[in-house]
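Table S2 (continued). Query chain:
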Amino acid sequence: MSRIKYTYFYALSLAAFLILSTSSFHASANNATPVLIKQGLSLPKANLLKEGTHRYLSYFRDDESNMPIDIRTRTVRFETRDGKKHMQIKQRWDGAGKVESTKWVDSWFEVDTFVPLTHQRITVRDGKKITEGFIFQPNSVTGMPDLAENTQKDMSVSTLEPTFNFETDIELLQTLPLEAGYQASIHFYHPGGKTAPTRYLFKVIGSETIFAGGSMIECWVVTTDYNAPNSIAQFWFAKNTQLLVRKESGLANGKKIIQVLLD
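Corresponding output:
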């Protein structure tokens, strides 16, 4: 065989291999059996969730137009209370729009299992303050009765199974064993939200190296449709720490909400 024919044959073989490999990956990702994430068990990568603070810029993208929404600060800390170690996730969202707005979120959990305990949310928008507080229980999420000015004091939502807190989804996803083809089914509820507690499917669809937080980061790419075809979201988690470094959420009007890691 001549060198030219050999080179041509080798190129065709390599191309076929790459196509088959890619097809095989997507087939395994689509055919993989989702792992049911249930409460009470230690999460495989819980050790990756470290104490510290990270900030994200959130903005709308419409074609080439970009409009800032807010800066979101998320802080993880651990504390021993009544002889048991607990985890706290605090958030502060500082609005960047024409109307002044700030949101504070304070959530407590069991360590390692991520079982949610309580959730408080204070929103100040255009000078008006709204206070909300919730208690997570195995079969329900109820309003916090002793929280002053709690607008959700009388709320009670039943759950078919113990549910995780949807407002801390990116930290929970950080504790899962992300890898090629991995899928997880997670029961979530957004406290006080209109959508009933239910399961959502998250899929690792590949990997990508992107620029975020001042450097190039090799990431796992995770997607979900939030059980609605027009609500596709895509997450980029750093492979070494599984910290979220980027998120894109599609809206029905064609716009996107993008979050990028600042520090």
